[in-house]
Task: inverse folding
């Protein structure tokens, strides 16, 4: 990881705001992905129990989207990339911006 | 036909020759599109690699710049794993897939369905039944194929260890 020096040079205020707001991964409803598959992806990637995976999948289906994980921006970029790898429609945003 | 649960976390797969050929062709289409250099505007490519940031085009572009290569490689490897498993001879018509290969299968079937569904412009739940289309409607065989792939993926998800 070669980005550490750049991180250190950033103004303190910037760093404070960036770390204060956690980020979230949002999965959006789409007409192609199967409900069973989406729940399976949540179980497999996040290790969520069956009940939680089904609940999140139903939230995506019925409300159009669901927050499926939260953490640092880098962690959420990894989760979003993994979701894209499985073919799910996922984005990340600052918590509260979704 | 289709997928079933095997012993010790494996998944069983039974396909006839035509189905194997059809899936092989579809997987090669996926690989061809992944290899295309100027396909960024293709709706299928956009569906495979959606914007990671909804309201921040610059951040979405940066995500794409840093992640697209890895994601493309992942999709390619997934399709190749499935093609290799189709290349191996079946025993009495049945293939036994390890859980890793089964995971590649379920993701590859999803990539194919995303491509086909995007081409068919499937946008909602209340889509046309292929049987309701005219005999010579070109969407009819494509929708029937899509439905078969949906059924296949559903049986696979239900058979995953």
Result:
């Amino acid at each position: 990881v070669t980005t550490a020096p750049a991180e250190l040079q950033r103004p303190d205020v910037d760093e404070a705001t960036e770390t204060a707001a956690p980020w979230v991964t949002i999965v959006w409803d789409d007409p192609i992905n199967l409900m069973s598959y989406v729940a399976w992806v949540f179980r497999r990637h996040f290790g969520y129990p069956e009940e939680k995976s089904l609940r999140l999948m139903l939230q995506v289906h019925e409300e159009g989207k669901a927050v499926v994980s939260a953490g640092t921006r880098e962690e959420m970029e990894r989760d979003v990339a993994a979701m894209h790898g499985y073919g799910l429609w996922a984005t990340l945003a600052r918590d509260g911006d979704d | 036909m289709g997928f079933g649960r095997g012993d010790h976390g494996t998944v069983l797969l039974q396909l006839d020759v035509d189905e194997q050929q059809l899936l092989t062709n579809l997987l090669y289409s996926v690989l061809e599109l992944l290899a295309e250099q100027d396909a960024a505007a293709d709706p299928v490519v956009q569906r495979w690699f959606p914007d990671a940031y909804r309201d921040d085009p610059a951040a979405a572009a940066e995500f794409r710049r840093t992640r697209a290569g890895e994601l493309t490689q992942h999709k390619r490897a997934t399709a190749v794993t499935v093609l290799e498993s189709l290349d191996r001879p079946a025993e009495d018509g049945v293939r036994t897939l390890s859980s890793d290969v089964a995971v590649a299968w379920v993701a590859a079937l999803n990539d194919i369905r995303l491509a086909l569904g995007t081409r068919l412009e499937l946008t909602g739940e209340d889509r046309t039944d292929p049987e309701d289309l005219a005999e010579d409607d070109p969407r009819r065989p494509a929708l029937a194929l899509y439905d078969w792939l949906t059924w296949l993926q559903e049986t696979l998800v239900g058979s995953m260890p």
Notes: Residues 1-16 of chain A have pLDDT under 50 and may be disordered. Residues 50-63 of chain A form the longest helix (14 residues). Chain A touches chain B at residues 31-34, 36-37, 40, 44, 77, 80-81, 84-87, 89-93, 97 (CB under 8 Å).
